[in-house]
Prior knowledge:
alpha+beta; globular; Uridine Diphospho-n-acetylenolpyruvylglucosamine Reductase, domain 3; 4-stranded mixed beta sheet; Uridine Diphospho-n-acetylenolpyruvylglucosamine Reductase, domain 1; Uridine Diphospho-n-acetylenolpyruvylglucosamine Reductase, domain 2; 5-stranded antiparallel beta sheet
Amino acid sequence: MNLFQGLKAKVKTKIPLSHYTTFKIGGEADFFIEPTDVRELRKILKIAKRNNLRIYILGAGSNLLVSDEGVRAVVIRLSSDYFKKIKFLGNYVWVGAGLKVSRLLKSCLENGLGGIEFLTGIPATLGGAIFMNAGTKEGCIGDFVEEVKVMDYNGKIKKLKRNSLDFGYRYSNLKNFIILEALLRLIKKDKKEIRNKMDYFMNYRRLTQELSYPSCGCIFKNPNGFFAGKLIEDCNLKGKSIGDAQVSQKHANFIINRNSASAKDVLKLIDYIKGKVKKKFNIDLELEIEIW
Ligand code: FAD
């Protein structure tokens, strides 16, 4: 039985999500659909609702740990050209949620627009970056968002202006929406200055982060007044492994997949780290990554 009859987009079944996460971990999704446009997206939501199927929105999968058993759900990825549009209007740019942040930065550089260079090296889509309010100590994407076009899970499209948006540390108030596009307000700059900043941020990442193994970046949020990586390092956990999941030698808040780590390995390692940090510092580490 084809539940999703009539869609132009191919409806894939039993798709291993390990192919779509930067951790290279994750079991199968029951359904995996890349809608061609918003009308199809709405149709998918309607069919899923009618059939009591859960929906997950996947960006670049760079902040996700997907269970080895996968998800009994419809995974939607906004990867068609429709969701990757980019349009510059003076210092403003409308960006589709499916566009990779690296692509956005390249286009901004070509247009002499800066401000968001600190996002260099974050392997996200624009949708995932806004949902998570991605950033570094240099800034967060939320500071540049003027408006977000979203669809709610009933298929209704809304435009949320800056005054109704709330961004915090790895937080946005967009949990109940699918992000379709966003309007960013950038800063006119000299192209050379932008390029230099981007190079600087990329080099800093290469120096400080473990980029040669699959991971999903920082596992834990920094507790108020502390760095999670420092707390983990001070528990002598750099290099600690469970199966093929290992605390990075370079950045203790990264867990790397050395080859064939399972989600179970990563979860056990997370529990182990939390236990050690709690015991030594009486601090409860909170996850930054999302678990599916
Ligand atoms: P995903 O991981 O696919 O999804 C994350 C969440 O966003 C999920 O809840 C998903 O449902 C939701 N989502 C995605 N797209 C949409 C949409 N269109 N509408 C609604 N919800 C959506 N993060 C930082 O903040 N700073 C860093 O410096 C940083 N460095 C990293 C370095 C590495 C090497 C890696 C692997 C990750 C790093 N991250 C960093 C983490 C990650 O890149 C960010 O959290 C990013 O914002 C996730 O975007 P994504 O597109 O991959 O989203």
